[in-house]
Amino acid sequence: MENNIGLLLTRRAELNRDREAYVDSATRNRWTFGELETRTNQLGHSLVDAGVEKGDRVALLMMNSIEFLESYLALAKVGAVVVPLNWRLVADELEFILKDSGSTLCIYGEEFFELANDLQGREDKTDIKRWLQVGGESPFADDYDDFRDAGSKELPPIRATDDDMLYIMYTSGTTGLPKGVMHTHETTLWALFSFSASANDRRNDDRNLNALPLFHVGALLPVTMNIYLGHTSVIMREFDPQLAWQLIEEERINTSLLVPAMLNFMVQVPNAQDYDHSALRYIYSGASPLPVNLIKAYADIGIEVHQVYGLTESCGPGCLIDADNALNKIGSTGRGFFHTDVRIVDEEGNDCLPNEQGEVWLAGKHIMKGYWNRPDATAETITQDGWLRTGDVAVMDEEGFVYIQDRIKDMIISGGENVYPAEIENVILGHPDVAEVAVIGQPSERWGESPFAIVVRKSDALLETDILQHCDGKLARFKLPKGAAFIDIIPRNANGKVLKRVLREQFPGPAPT
Question: What is the reported pLDDT for 195?
């Protein structure tokens, strides 16, 4: 068997043709592995017949859907390169990605017609030659269903393997222009090996809830792993906290991966504890540090939340906490995945002592091949001996458990001391009237920088003085926020990470004295 990610579906359909593969949470439509394989083969043949060659880049502008998944798998089989687009971006941002990637075909959902129409009017600025629309009618795009269904149901030609590129996934661009992370069939396969060898208590008939967008590695890898392991993917088109609880109950969900912001919204759903979650064994949480109080809130209703750490650049795997240590090592993201090496390194590139702060470095066969068209950025991120510099600050204890503290670029230097916002955010989230919080650094004439808290409150009665008093005595003096402001919504990117650049622009300071 060739090492092609699309062929994982072929093999799974051979073994479990009638097993449920995909459930659409909005319609509750269901497809078996055999049905998904047939649709994928048809699309693969149609792509080849339309002139799509090995290595051609094809952009996907779709919400989570069966069409997204079959496009990804069909493109993998015929050797094209998938370019998943973040549909929360505006036309100018998408134009940059289309041009930078050199995509020649774009498949999009009808809900994005206006956006696609804008982009197709910029023909001189992108390389897109053809458009396919899923659903509805379009004056410039071919109908996706008609295009797919014209193809043969037999296996299409398999034109990629091993080190051939599978996808270019653009980073969210929290600072500057996004960079295209290149992953191959091999790096993705090793990510599957690493995750499946490390994952807690996976069973043959598991049902997995996916609420993250499929243009994010935190969704695409788990859905691919479900095919590899024969598990059922229950997919949400968009995250809705109450619907998530309903799906956990009605679809008898066993596992899920949700970012901390999602978990926070879910725990605030009225009577959340009344939903039947007896089939749910655990929830993974990643993308940003998981507040300890949130882990405890779920533990109180009988749900274990296990921290997982990884990056787009690592194709997902970094560190994972095992079930035995999820609560007695609370706050840790665990040890390295099975096929992942992890180091905590100081500024000179030397290994840190236990409990000494440093940067997380990762290595393994699942690490990206580099950034598309950015050899300079690749050289800055991957060392000559293959270690990925993550830009994340952490400590590792004597037993090898890693505790992620923050991003290096978000670190505040106050009076010469390093202050990590996540530590302050954890304390502030302990206040019963705080829904969300983000801490940034503001310029300070006296200290250089000082911490400043931006808070989403549950009650209008909460005042700035309440926040500051709550922190007093729980943090060292130099870590105490000098002020606080209230906001309705904390800006986040599609991965759930707080856009602190936006907050720094909105609250430029100077810090209160």
Answer: 92
User: Which segments in the chain show pLDDT lower than 50?
Assistant: 174-175
The upper half-sphere exposure of residue 174, i.e. CA atoms within 13 Å in the direction of its Cβ, equals 16
Q: For residue 220, what is the DSSP state?
A: H
Cβ neighbours of residue 268 under 8 Å, at least 6 residues apart?
A: 241, 435
Tell me which residue of 8, 67, 55, 54 sits closest to 33, measured CA to CA: 8
pLDDT in tens, 130-186: 999 999 999 999 999 999 999 999 999 999 999 999 999 998 654 457 899 999 999
Q: Are strands 130-134 and 142-143 parallel, antiparallel or unpaired?
A: parallel
Count of helices and strands (H, E) across the chain: 15, 26
Domains and CATH numbers, the chain: 5-16+27-161 (3.40.50.12780), 188-407 (3.40.50.12780), 411-506 (3.30.300.30)
3-state class (DSSP) for residue 123 = helix
Pair 478, 511: CB distance under 8 Å: no
Angle formed at CA 431 by CA 427 and CA 434, multiple of 5 degrees: 105
Closest among 186, 224, 193 to 73, alpha carbons compared: 224
> Is the separation of the CB atoms in 131 and 140 below 8 Å?
yes
Whole-model pTM? 0.85
- CA 183 – CA 317 distance, rounded (Å): 13
Q: Which residue has the tokens 């505040």?
A: 412
For residue 485, the model assigns a pLDDT of: 95
Predicted pLDDT at 215: 93
Q: Are 9 and 227 in contact (CB under 8 A)?
A: yes
Which residues does 278 contact at the CB level (< 8 Å), separation at least 6? none
pLDDT reported for residue 449 = 85
